[in-house]
């Protein structure tokens, strides 16, 4: 089930426009029908395929008690009122085929309650129950990464491995290693027939019957049946047929999820680019107008980025549980998520939750903007990018947030300018640096400690681990080497900035 508002927003990107409506945008749509001549059909969305005119399409919709009718452009003027008998009229562009329209609408309306993008529960559990009943043993359905998608309620004497897998929502590492050593994954890649995997008491496995779930040559997942010996022929056939049904379900769910991700990404980019329509985009995404943070996130496995990044984006747009607080888009090698989050701790928990959902060997780096209104999200994106760069420099720390780390960001900007050769090559700091390098002195460190101690030689000495008289002596020697106007407040400030930019320890 989806709302009329959702249908209008998604189809608008495919060449279908809302021509007229008296129905509320919150009207719920649960079914799709096509006119079938004399046969009476009833549904919320009617595809007026073959209608000779707008009027004929509306008559078909009225007969079907439809909330919305989709029809082709018509030469007749569109003059409708609330008594027309249909809630909304949507017009399909001539360049768009009915088959394309039907595929999108069926995916949205019929799979709206089970999309992989996190809009609601899925009937894969019902399918697992049905398959378990036909076979007579417990069933677990995995995706291609061995994460648990669904499992049956039939758990007669479940072995420890099945219980652990269901509780962890994925195949534990020790079982992965066992199955890999036995060539199970290689057989899944190359076989379309169910095969038996013998039990292993040390790993708590009584035995498994396994079959790949495929779409053409693509491996989409697998179905695992707990059993102590190979299934008989009727059960094997039921398992093979069940795998085909699971594949169809995953294809529909994937199409629905990909469609939603595309629409969501386009709207998120409108927000991050500061579009004039950003307020409308936020409303379509279900985001508030204020109290938002932008999270910039990157994921990698060693030097390899693409696979980990796509996996992280999949998890970010799949959600945790059955709902998602944030809305995400993928740009280059960075995932941007707009998240309703007042305190920075809320955004960090989101990052932690995403990281926990990824394999342990994936490294995640993230930066968090300050809290912002919708109109300020373009600036917030830059803040998130700078915090991401800060986290990359110190990956062992927690993801930084701009409102807590603005000082580090400022220093990072200064260091970037310094690395680009934009610091003075002459002047007190440059001359003292050359002297330190040539003679092994610690004048720059002493100057920095004195400035940070606001001119207190005793405190500066404590910072350096030397006597305060040593600090005074060094200052006198520095003044002999270069012009050191420490009595000028503006020049003291300039010295501190240059030392910070150079990041002198």
Automatic annotation (TrEMBL):
It comes from Mycobacterium scrofulaceum. It holds the Pfam family HTH_30. Gene3D superfamilies: PucR C-terminal helix-turn-helix domain. This is PucR family transcriptional regulator. Residues 443-501 form the PucR C-terminal helix-turn-helix domain. It comes from the Bacteria.
């Amino acid at each position: 089930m989806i709302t009329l508002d959702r249908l209008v927003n998604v189809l608008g990107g495919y060449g279908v426009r809302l021509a007229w409506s008296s129905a509320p945008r919150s009207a719920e749509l649960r079914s799709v029908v096509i006119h079938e001549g004399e046969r009476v059909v009833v549904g919320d969305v009617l595809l007026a395929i073959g209608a000779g005119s707008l009027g004929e399409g509306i008559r078909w919709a009225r007969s079907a008690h439809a909330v919305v009718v989709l029809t082709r452009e018509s030469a007749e003027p569109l003059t409708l009122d609330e008594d027309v008998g249909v809630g909304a009229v949507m017009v399909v562009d001539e360049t768009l085929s009915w088959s394309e329209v039907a595929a999108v609408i069926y995916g949205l309306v019929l799979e709206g309650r089970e999309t992989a993008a996190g809009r609601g529960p899925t009937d894969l559990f019902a399918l697992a129950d049905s398959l378990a009943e036909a076979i007579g043993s417990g069933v677990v359905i995995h995706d291609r990464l061995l994460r648990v998608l669904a499992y049956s309620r039939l758990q007669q004497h479940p072995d420890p491995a099945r219980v652990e897998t269901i509780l962890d929502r994925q195949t534990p590492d020790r079982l992965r290693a066992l199955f890999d050593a036995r060539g199970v994954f290689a057989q899944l890649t190359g076989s379309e027939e169910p095969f038996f995997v013998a039990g292993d008491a040390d790993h708590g496995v009584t035995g498994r019957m396994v079959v790949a779930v495929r779409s053409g040559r693509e491996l989409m997942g697998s179905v695992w049946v707990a059993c102590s010996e190979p299934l008989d022929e009727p059960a094997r056939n039921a398992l093979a047929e069940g795998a085909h049904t699971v594949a169809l379900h995953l294809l529909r769910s994937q199409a629905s999820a990909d469609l939603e991700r595309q629409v969501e990404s386009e709207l998120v980019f409108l927000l991050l680019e500061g579009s004039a329509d950003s307020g409308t985009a936020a409303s379509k995404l279900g985001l508030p107008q204020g109290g938002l943070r932008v999270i910039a996130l990157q994921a990698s496995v060693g030097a390899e980025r693409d696979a980990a990044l796509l996996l992280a984006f999949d998890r970010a747009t799949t959600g945790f549980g059955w709902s998602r607080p944030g809305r995400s888009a993928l740009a280059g090698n960075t995932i941007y998520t707009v998240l309703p989050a007042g305190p920075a701790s809320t955004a960090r928990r989101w990052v932690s939750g995403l990281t926990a959902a990824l394999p342990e060997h994936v490294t995640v780096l993230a930066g968090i903007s300050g809290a912002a209104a919708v109109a300020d999200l373009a600036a917030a994106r830059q803040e998130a990018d700078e915090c991401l760069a800060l986290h990359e420099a110190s990956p062992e720390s927690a993801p930084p947030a701009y409102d807590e780390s603005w000082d580090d960001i400022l220093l990072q900007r200064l260091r970037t300018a310094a690395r680009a050769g934009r610091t003075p090559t002459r002047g007190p700091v440059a001359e003292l640096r050359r002297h330190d390098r040539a003679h092994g002195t610690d004048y720059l460190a002493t100057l920095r400690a004195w400035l940070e101690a606001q001119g207190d030689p005793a405190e500066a000495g404590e910072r350096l681990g030397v006597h305060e008289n040593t600090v005074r002596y060094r200052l006198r020697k520095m003044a002999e080497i270069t012009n050191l106007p420490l009595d000028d407040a503006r020049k003291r400030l300039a010295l501190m900035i240059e030392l910070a930019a150079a990041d002198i320890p």
